[in-house]
Amino acid sequence: MANKNSVRKLPMNAVYKSTEQFKETVEIDLDVEGKEYRITLHPFFDPIKINKCIESLGKDLDAMKKNNYILPDNLFPQFLLTHILYEFSDFPPSKSKDVKVRVSYFKEVIKSPYYKECVNYLKQSEVAKVWERLMEVLQENENLDKLKNKLAEDLLTLDVQNPEIKKMIQAKTKRIPEA
């Protein structure tokens, strides 16, 4: 006779059912010069796509840095929301590989009424998940930088007798940038 209070194993169908919300969509109808267009948006953000969104954001920020373009702080919230729209809807992103063209397009997007209309459909709780994950990634990167610098310092304090290995350690630790 089985104990009624026994703990059971999690069934696979419960896992599948718990992720069904990520398949939901909302259709946003837009009137563009008298013609109807539709944007399909996923109102619930799955963790995999959140990571992809942050990766895309990071790549664009890195590309801007390499091209000596600094995104003004007051535009960062819209820049993040635009990346969220690109990842969780079929809102059209710039297809250009040139970061200056992408930034120019971004500035046009945030001025358009379509951007505002689509952003109004984003759930604050879902946007907060992206922000929280972004903060986690930044903290993880900071921790990795600290660890890398600590290891470099530790390597320099090792009493290595072999001159070739010593030279190699010194060369490698000089290449590690300051945090």
TrEMBL record:
<protein>
    <submittedName>
        <fullName>Uncharacterized protein</fullName>
    </submittedName>
</protein>
